[in-house]
Amino acid sequence: MNSVRKTTTTTLWRPTGPEELALVEASGWTAWPPRLPEQPIFYPVLNEDYAVRIARDWNVPASGVGYVTRFEVDTEFLRRYPVRQAGGETILELWVPAEELDAFNAHIVGRIEVVREFR
Asked: Do the Cβ atoms of 83 and 43 come closer than 8 Å?
């Protein structure tokens, strides 16, 4: 009997601006770009509403456009990152150290997709 292990995934969202999104597109929609020196942490969020608020309220004023992306990551891998509450009850995010981003990207299942755009 041949058993195939099905990967259980967790849906994450990431609000992003046009420069970061262009780098995601350049990866074939499969990876987040390395962090800049002043960005020691990569912050994916756990719900779409929080991502929408950041994209609309921060990214649009900063760069004229804000995107909300959605992607799936292997749940077992994500267990290493405790959920952080960054404010209210639904303001939940993961803190992925910049030096672990390659490993994080390797555990993305499928493609990163843009689900909302604000201008």
From this structure: no
Over the range 39-67, which residues count as b (16 or more CB within 10 Å of their CB) and which as e?
eeebebbbebebbbbbbbeebbeeeeebb
Q: Identify whether the C-beta of residue 94 lies closer than 8 Å to the C-beta of residue 78.
A: yes
- The whole model's pTM is what? 0.92
- What is the tens place of the pLDDT at every residue in 28-77? 999 999 999 999 999 999 999 999 999 999 999 999 999 999 999 999 99
Query: How far is residue 100's CA from residue 98's CA, in Å, rounded to a whole number?
Result: 5
Residues in Cβ contact with 4 at an 8 Å cutoff, skipping those fewer than 6 apart:
none
Query: What is the spatial distance between Cα 55 and Cα 48, in angstroms, rounded to a whole number?
Result: 10
Closest C-alpha among 13, 12, 1, 28 to residue 73: 12
CA 3 to chain centre: 31
| Backbone φ, ψ for residue 60 (5° rounding) | -60, -50
